[in-house]
Fold these 4 entries.
Entry 1:
Amino acid sequence: MSFSSLPRVSRVIVAAAVLLACGSGLLAQTPSQTGSSTGSAATPAAMGAAASDPVVISAGGAQLHASEFQALLMSSPAQNQAEMEANKRAVADELAKMLALVDAAQRQGLDQDAAFKAEMLLTRDNALAKALVDKLQAAATPTDAQIQAYYDAHTSDYVQTKVRHILVGDAETAGGPNPRTQAAALAKVQQLETQLKNGADFAALAKTDSDDTGSKAQGGELGVIAPGQTVPEFETAVKALPVGKISDPIHTRFGYHIVEVESRAPQPLPQVKAQIVEALSTPVVEAQIDKITAAAHPVISDSYFGPEPAAAPAGSAPPAAPAAPATPKQ
């Protein structure tokens, strides 16, 4: 398997790792570049170190030791490490090309360029900041008991509802081509509501009368939806609707909906554990970051960046968030 056949993300990771290594001095240089005397005798300790950590890739004046190669693999995202470990040779081939470019760039003095130095300094600082945030996140990881308690107190937040609907659009529906007036749409949806509550087949009516082209062929099936996936009017009505019941007409910016809830159940804890860990740990980490920032007494030049924006008046409402789509994204 060639490295070029690996997913692009793996190649980008390898390239980024090499650049980061170069900027941090991880890549070893040949003796002539480090000032070692040519012809000087190697000490037994040096010979032992070389044997235990040999150079595994070299190109021009740049070298990579076995320990450094492993460090680069381990610094990649966890989901890529197994793939890269299984394709070491392909990864090494790509690294050799990068080392050759690094060597040529250094010989041309590009590593002394001010823009390059600034970029590498920022890369180093970002890596350091991320390392600290990772440490804070590890320390803020909640216990299993805390996760269970949060889940028990917020079970309703993780309820999944299986629904199907019939949509009757009108001329006021954003982006909709339907020429039907809103009054005509309401009249039609009320007729459909009557038919359904008198026992008409929901799927059959959805296939013939729904204006939702994404679900009508499936009998109006929207599948399983979770809190926050639909616009508020739709979500509120669905949440209050008992399983197996037909809703009254629900009006959203997409038109009028008739909905049936087919099932409703909370997601098992293992499926939402990662979300709960994030919900519990994020505020702790953010508070620690704020504390660290305050202790550092940061100063930002008003003359260079402009004055700090004035604080919003007390009690003022934040900007409205954009509405979610009326139906889940397919």
Entry 2:
Amino acid sequence: MIKKNSKSVAVIVAHPDDETLWTGGIILSHPSWQWFTVCLCCGSDKDRAPRFHKALKILKSDGIMGDLDDGPNQKPLDEKEVEGTILDLLPPKHFDLIITHNPSGEYTRHIRQEEVSKAVIKLWHSGKISTYEMWTFAYSDGNKKYYPRPVENAPVYQTLTKRIWLRKFNLITETYGFEKDSFEAETTPRAESFWQFTNSYEAKKWVSNGGVLTDNPHDNNINKKNMNEGL
């Protein structure tokens, strides 16, 4: 990624708290960056929506919410609806970096996270959104064997300082109101990791691979070759 003191960064997530849980440490660690957070669901939720906006104030991020269906049945949404909502909410400008979900999600499994990831990558590949670089969250729960953990061999991996992690944990437990023994609080990672793409064709291939490393060395080089580019 281009190194400069101030970057324009968009974070595009499915739910309130996703921005904090999966990339809150990066946001808190870079207060000089210009952050804009798009949350596609829960805009009419009288509990979660106010908490999201309060969290953004602490994160020093501008942002906006949509109201896509996020009912317990997790009925798949039409991809055009997801893409259209993103275009309606995201400012029509070029970003230095866009951060979003991974095509495989962050845990087993939440359809909305997967849908958002695929839509963002498709919009980038088609030129409807513009960025120099895209990161997708790199976490795994071992197919429900453990709480989601950052992928240590992902191209971008950052261990959070104790101070930053505590601020992030307080956002989850105090601002969002999750109990300290909740999934969200137990999950809150002390490191954050991301798959990194500087080319939309590589990101599209990543979607085709299901957002996971494959046995094909050529496919895996997509991620490894960016390993040393850093933050």
Entry 3:
Amino acid sequence: MAKYLVPGPRQLNSRVGGHRRESAAMERHHDPVRPIVGGLVLGLVLLLAVGPVRPEAAQPVDLALVMAVDVSESVDDDEYVLQHEGIARAFESPLLAAALSAGRTGAIEVAVLEWSDRDKQVVTVDWSRVGDAASAAAFARKVRASQRSSDGLTAIGDALRAARRLLDAAPAPADRRLIDLSGDGIANIGPPVREVRDELVAAGITINGLAILASEPWLEGYYDEYVIGGPGAFLLRAESFASFATAMQNKLLSEISGLPPSTTMLAQSGRADRAYHFMFSPSPLAGEEGWGVARAAHQESRNTYSHPASSKLRQHPPP
């Protein structure tokens, strides 16, 4: 007859307790949440000890440049292409790459702002760092790829303020801040240009001008009196949109180097040019409104007066 040992109460308690301890140990071993919580706690401790990770600061540049390009209704499609091609060709020039390398940091940051009416200022090429021939060529490709943003009236004062806001948002600190404004007509809407110009100059911004004399040959005088300003400011003029590329390259070389334009850019105007300027420039007492009268007089006389081809540079001395 088989014999069976029946465990007593003490033995049963011992076995049950042992199973419970084994089950608890297995649960702790296979708990999937515990490693995650532990990792989060450890990461938080390390973050508090090291501090937040900050993005690397942008490297400084020699110049922050906004190229403010007139796309008002007086600029037709062909003239628009000539302007953009002129900017692109200037950045592809070996002379520009050489001027970049001669700077303190060897680089500039540049953006293109198209402007026309009061509410029409559009950044068509955003801030780009240009420090060698390759990055200059890449910027030229961006310019060529951009599309015309608007047409409308000519709000130079609003364009200058938009350019200032763009400079204030530049990604890198710059030794110099500059607006390069090109256009083919006087302001016919918006805030007084001279007041805005003075605001920007007081903020340490230099404004250079490129007056395109395709439709208003006396525009140089208006730009000189109302638009350009600041330390070392200067004005170049292009007799037509076809000569825009050469004028733009000369202008950029001077702006990047920080040196005055060379005397080779300056051709003395003839007597007829001075007579024309005298005939159709308003009195200094007339203010900006007087230039509208001058424009009307010019339109009436275009069929009877031939303005000679010339190239002139006006420069404001450095401080």
Entry 4:
Amino acid sequence: MESDSIMRRTVALRNTTTMELAQFLEHLPRRDLWIFGYGSLMWRPEFHYRRKSVGLVRGYHRALCILSTRYRGTAARPGLVMGLCRGGSCWGMAFLVPAARVRWVLAKLWRREMLRKVYEPRLVPVRVGGGQRIRALTFIADPKHPQHVRELDLDGRAKLVAQGVGQRGRCTEYIRRTLEHMYELGVTDPHLERVLETADAIRSSAAARRAR
């Protein structure tokens, strides 16, 4: 049965943590593909899609838990970016990619998200507009990866966010834009807001000291 085939593919995808693109494509059904974004993918997908919809994932939550040494920081001064972690729920944006463009889009996403193997690509259940239930590709934080941050208080996270500047700009701007798009979805995150406020204060204080 088709449902059994989909289940086997889903299990194969779930069990491969440092997955190469060819492996992922081997198990992926040849059809249109939904992609779920919860961080910069919400506001900077950088790929063509047929439609987009607000989406809700249950069983995972958005967290500042990945050290960024490329896009929002460096190896010497890492920033901190989003990952999906176990527990709770997460509102984000789901994008539907036509089947004819799936391979091209995934190749681009792998270069963007999977270079350091910090994430596990996974198909997860998502509820989109109108109550429709779909399965979408998203990127789950790998808790075993050295760049995954588990135990860090608000001030510790804010310091990383304040110092992070990488190929795509300041980490504070990344957090700010993510929050802005969350607000557009009607979603707030008081912890993330406090991290940003503290990071901005750290940067302002450092700028004032330099100006003396």
